[in-house]
Amino acid sequence: MRLYPAIDILGGSAVRLVKGDFEAKTVYDEDPLSAARSWVEGGARFLHVVDLDGAKSGQPVNLGQLRRIASLGVPVQYGGGLRSLEALEQALGAGAERVILGTAAFTDAALLERALEAHGPERIVVSVDVRGGEVSIEGWTKAAGIGVREVFATLIRQGVQELAYTNVDRDGMLGGLNFEDLIWVAKAAEHGHLVYSGGIGDIEDLRHLARLRREAHLENLAGVIVGKALYEGRFTIAEAHEALAG
User: Fold this and answer.
1) Domain that holds residue 220
2) Per residue in 175-195, is it b (16+ CB within 10 Å) or e — as a string?
3) 240 versus 56: which is more confidently predicted?
4) Residue 78: exposed, middle, or buried by beta-carbon count in 10 A (0-12, 13-18, 19+)?
5) In the chain, how many domains are there?
6) Which of 101-110, 165-174, 225-234 has the highest mean pLDDT?
7) Range of weakest confidence among 123-132, 222-231, 235-244
8) How does residue 17 score in pLDDT terms, banded at 50, 70 and 90?
9) DSSP tag of 237
10) Catalytic annotation on 181?
11) CB 42 within 8 A of CB 237
């Protein structure tokens, strides 16, 4: 299972939000490259970068930061404001290994289809962000009006293979996993590869995640995104890798 240390960029800094609230942010590093370098030097093999400015504005804002981070030589998945084929191509051109579609995946089916055709399903990640039991879009500020339980089947039918799920109500809270939530999400996305995010608070959460993957036969659970717990030193990258290896 892959570990994706998170670098969320807002106003030029690496930040973490609480429950997706842009007004409840903590700045962890004034320079996102510095944050990324610390994860890479700690052993990170992948990075998860979110352009929060882009998510709010509807177009990528931090492509320059992406170029800097991608120069470290570690594969980066990048999202936030990617709502056109041109924006996707700009992000890939700036060094992203994979690009993340959120809002556009639910509001522009034609774009999703074209993106999958143009770049292949292995490079297009669709992010399903859930708040209050509903799929959220536009930087987690608006409900998409789509039922959570059927959304995964719909995406798989459209040809999506790579999926990311965030429980926004737990994001940035360090309160631990909701295992019931995780199990049904993994089973709903059983024909794709799922990366989970939201609530990781300590190393035991990662051990439980690896154990659950093994015991519940959730082989499609491909990775986990961790942000605040790493920034606050709850565990190291090396400890996380060991825990996820089971």
Assistant:
1) 2-244
2) eebeeebbeebbebbeebbbb
3) 240
4) buried
5) 1
6) 225-234
7) 123-132
8) confident
9) H
10) no
11) yes
Name the helix (H) or strand (E) containing 56: helix 52-57
Give me 14's structure tokens: 């690496």
Tokens matching residue 216: 């519940």
We report the CATH number of the domain holding residue 160 as: 3.20.20.70
- Length of the chain equals 246
- The reported pTM is 0.91
**pLDDT of 87 strictly over 60:** yes
DSSP output for 148-160: HHHHHHHHHHTT-
Q: Contacts by 108-116 with C-beta closer than 8 Å and gap 24+?
A: 108/83, 109/158, 111/83, 111/84, 111/85, 112/158, 112/160, 113/158, 113/159, 114/85, 115/85, 115/88, 116/158, 116/159, 116/160
Helices (H), 95-140: 103-107, 109-119
129 part of the active site = yes
What was the pLDDT predicted at 210?
95
Please identify which of the residues 51, 53, 129, 181 carries the catalytic annotation. Answer: 129
